[in-house]
């Protein structure tokens, strides 16, 4: 069964450099600006080094205010077409990452990229609301000391004092930590993190603010509000697009075939400071954090190196995504299924020159990474789209048939095919509708059936249902419902897959039969022509030989008679003439025989060629016959497998129903 529409387009990770101005402390220390921008070019120079990027903002480069429009706005547009996207802010502590992203509690909160993303997102939704239905969710997590924390967890205690003057974050006892999971299709998901449904820009901004406050911050020698963790703010956009109406053969509009489902995620990542631990002047707890931060960034550097090296990439060298939580989470965005922009933030101060150079080198390598974004479409939607196309095709065929005077039998077959497709489509749409209603929104964005099976049951979903039932009953029914639901989807998918497979194998068999018929016809024609030609040739040859025999006999008779009459007359002087004539006649006979021999050779060659061609045709016929037998076995085998699967599903369902009945009886008994 096709999973999603794959229109893979290779695209490089885009890299922009953002140079902030010299800030208060740097000015007080008398720092000098050591970074230059080549006028009119996205080129940065530091010392003797020169780097070219996709864009350069700040200093004498493009104004920072144009960054969103050029770098991030196309990614927001891509979300509406179903493409995932990622924006990464990279750079040393104090270089302006938080300011650039707008993840801080105050700095850049109005002008940062995330608030601008929100503006663009809601404006676009507003302009498209007549063509599609939208659903938005956000999550906000941070990775600190190789642990993933949920910044939107309402039950979290928040910041607590850890050691002298430092703040840290703890999770609620008993709450399982956020887990990074990888689906069978390679999609990375976070199990256990809160996803908040948002319907207004205000709600989304509130989530950003809440998470930013929760984010672990602490002081270092370099920056009072230094972020020691990687923060990832994720926006998920689901949309149900309205398509052009499709009509049945009788001109009735098909309501259910007018929608297409797309789902895409935008990760906005504010990475921790990239400087080395020794420069932070940290010790004890802070130093440990520094080591962990560097572990994530070190792994990120290694991933960038592996992906940025064209030779290694072509050789399929190992990419160490699993070396840290950060790289594991960003696996999709680096060399995977995402459009990615990296913003390298740098300080212009000469005191930071070494770290700035490191950042520029990193960023330069990231430009070589190639991603392969795909449209994330729900498998059901993909099937619906396929069916839609098939239906339209059949309708066109039917129209042609009506106009082209095709037999009423054929029209009838086409009509039946269409109604069968329509009925199937209705079933699929109903499944999709139920699936949508029964599942939490996060389940909907899964891109394959396998994912639907392993989906995570969200705590909000639990709370909603607790109003009508007690915990035990709820969990039981929810588990069964989730199980049933995924099985139903499985069943529809499998049945559909079976039908498609049988249909395509049937077509293949028809094709083989046609080819076989054609070859057998050719063989017959070939054989007929060949026999006739040979027969004619040999007949002629026989007649020629007969004639020759007769002529030689007559000649012999004539010569004998002549010799007899000469000897009786006693004329001896004529004898040399007679011998001369005889010799001539014999020479003529030899010439004639030579010609006959040549024609015999030609005949033999022709016969050989005919035999070869006949053998080839015969082999082709045998091969097609073998293919036909194989395909017939395959069709039978697949049908048998499907029958067995169906029977086992029915048994399973029966057992589940029985089990469900028993469970609710025992639950009722225990309540009593
Ligand atoms: N483009 C800019 N214009 C003016 N001030 C800026 C700019 N970028 C950053 N700053 C200032 O520089 C300081 C450090 O910025 P910021 O906190 O964003 O750095 P950071 O890279 O996120 O640091 P950390 O890694 O410690 O979180 C802040 O006081 C911020 O206001």
From TrEMBL:
Q: Name one GO molecular function term.
A: microtubule motor activity
Q: Please provide, in alphabetical order, the Gene Ontology terms of the cellular component aspect for this entry.
A: cytoplasm; microtubule; microtubule associated complex
Q: Which residues bind ATP?
A: 91-98
Enumerate the SMART domains for this protein: KISc (SM00129)
Where's it mainly located? cytoplasm
**Which GO biological process entries does UniProt record here?**
cell wall organization; microtubule-based movement; mitotic spindle organization; spindle elongation
Instruction: Please state every residue range assigned to the domain named Kinesin motor.
Output: 12-369
* Phosphoprotein as UniProt keyword: no
- Keyword check for ATP-binding, yes or no: yes
Q: Which domain of life is it from?
A: Eukaryota
The record's subcellular locations are: Cytoplasm
| Gene3D superfamilies (UniProt xref) | Kinesin motor domain
Q: What keywords appear on the UniProt entry?
A: ATP-binding, Cell wall biogenesis/degradation, Coiled coil, Cytoplasm, Microtubule, Motor protein, Nucleotide-binding
Query: What InterPro entries does the database record attribute to this sequence?
Result: Kinesin-like_fam, Kinesin_motor_CS, Kinesin_motor_dom, Kinesin_motor_dom_sf, P-loop_NTPase
- In this entry, which stretches build a coiled coil? 502-634
Q: Give the family per the record.
A: Belongs to the TRAFAC class myosin-kinesin ATPase superfamily. Kinesin family. KIN-4 subfamily.
Q: How does it assemble?
A: Homodimer.
Q: Which PANTHER family match?
A: CHROMOSOME-ASSOCIATED KINESIN KIF4A-RELATED (PTHR47969)
- Record's protein name: Kinesin-like protein
